[in-house]
Amino acid sequence: MSSPTESYFSNQDDRLIHEGDFSYIEEGEGPVFVLLHGLFGALSNFKEVVDFLKQDYKVVLPKLPIYDLPVLNTNVKALSKHLKAFIDFKGYDKVNLLGNSLGGHVGLVYANDYPNKVNSMILSGSSGLYENAFGGSFPRREDKSYLRQKIALTFYDPAIVTDELVDECHEAVNNRNKVIRILSIAKSAIRHNMAKELPNYKMPVCLIWGKNDTITPPEVAVEFNDKLPDSELYWIDKCGHAPMMEHPQEFNQHLGDWLSKHKEMFS
Asked: How many whole angstroms separate alpha carbon 188 and alpha carbon 171?
């Protein structure tokens, strides 16, 4: 398993493609899977998922402009509009959306607005119903030990919280421009509850959830599964908010099993 601080979004990464207003990574060929990262991009490490999917699919990871939007327009809806602009720019007919945390929420908003553009969805630790960001309080800026404890709530195994990850998050919460946008996005995600819209989703949805997720707890996954007309819920034990990081092989096993059940969609 790779380090959780290995971000797909380093400007020095030669995989990152810059076109127009968009930055993204694209690997593989076939039906398009768009992977959507969470609020702290480095916490959404999809490396193993990309390696798994790119054998049969085109896998695309757009960088969401969380820190680039105007403060008054830093919200889930604006990120969904960016996703629409990106999908239109790339000329994709139909996409399969895979999102973790905030990324799942962005995908849900897009799928609600443009259902004919979405073939299927995979959600893991998605916001949209309820989330307990940072355990209910924002980290104190100068206290790295406190920040480490709060980041550890994201995972079942606190050993995943490396010094590098703490330093990266510490830089973000001490950057005034970033912290204002982090708070704006977090509040937007809480306000933008999608319970009423979920029964209208027609596409098949795969839910892969950590049994020990404290950010979007197991009852959130159950509610998603109950409200979505065509969904299947897979659990990963001893796992927190980012299953693709903590248990990438088990995540890919569940994903592969679900894809096999719906292979006619991708033929």
From this structure: 22
Q: What is the pTM of this model?
A: 0.90
Q: Which of 203, 225, 221, 204 is nearest to 213 (CA)?
A: 221
- DSSP H helical segments within the chain, as ranges? 47-53, 76-90, 102-113, 144-152, 163-173, 176-191, 218-227, 243-246, 248-261
Please, are residues 241 and 159 in contact by the beta-carbon 8 Å criterion? no
In angstroms, rounded to a whole number, what is the distance separating the alpha carbons of residues 191 and 29? 37
At position 125, the amino acid (one-letter code) is G
pLDDT in tens, 89-113: 999 999 999 999 999 999 999 999 9
The DSSP bridge pattern shows strands 58-62 and 22-27 to be antiparallel
Ordered by where they begin, the domains of the chain are 17-266 (3.40.50.1820)
Q: Classify burial at 8, counting beta carbons within 10 Å of its beta carbon; exposed 0-12, middle 13-18, buried 19 or more.
A: buried
pLDDT digits (tens, 9 = 90+) for 153-172: 889 998 888 888 788 888 88
